[in-house]
Amino acid sequence: MRALSKCRPNGKPSNNDLWKSTLAWLEKAIEAGIRAGWADNAHILLDPIPPENLEALRIAGDTLGGLGSMPTRILHKIQDAGLFWYT
């Protein structure tokens, strides 16, 4: 609930602190992956991102997908960081 309280109602999703901090974390993960050559055995150490933060962003949604959908830019960064799997 704490993470969700950081999302401003009726505000642009990319203007809230949670969105900005999550995007910055994902960009760090992408940079670390690039430096490691995306090796499967690379030891990339980052502070963990709380899953509640991602869930809060999904609940808040974005202007493209609306409420209940992962913001498009965050989803693309998750894919770019290799933190996404297809089922």
Describe the structure concisely for a colleague.
The termini are far apart. This protein has three helices and no strands. With 87 residues, the protein is mostly helical.
Model description:
The structure is a single chain. Helix 1 (17-35) runs parallel beside helix 3. The relative contact order is 0.20. The protein has 3 helices and no strands. The protein has one domain. It is mainly α. Helix content is 44%, strand content 0%. The mean pLDDT is 83. The protein has helices spanning 17-35, 51-60, 72-80.
SSE blueprint:
Elements: H1 17-35, H2 51-60, H3 72-80
Helix pairs in contact: 1-3
Mean pLDDT: 83
Largest sheet: none
Share of β-strand residues: under 5%
Structural class: mainly alpha
> If helices are DSSP runs of H or I spanning 4 or more residues, what is the number of helices?
3
Contiguous uncertain segments of 5+ residues: none
> Number of domains in the coordinates?
1
Q: How many strands? A: 0
How helical, in percent, are the residues?
40-55%
What overall form do the CA principal axes indicate? elongated
In sequence order, what are the helices and strands, one letter per element?
A: HHH
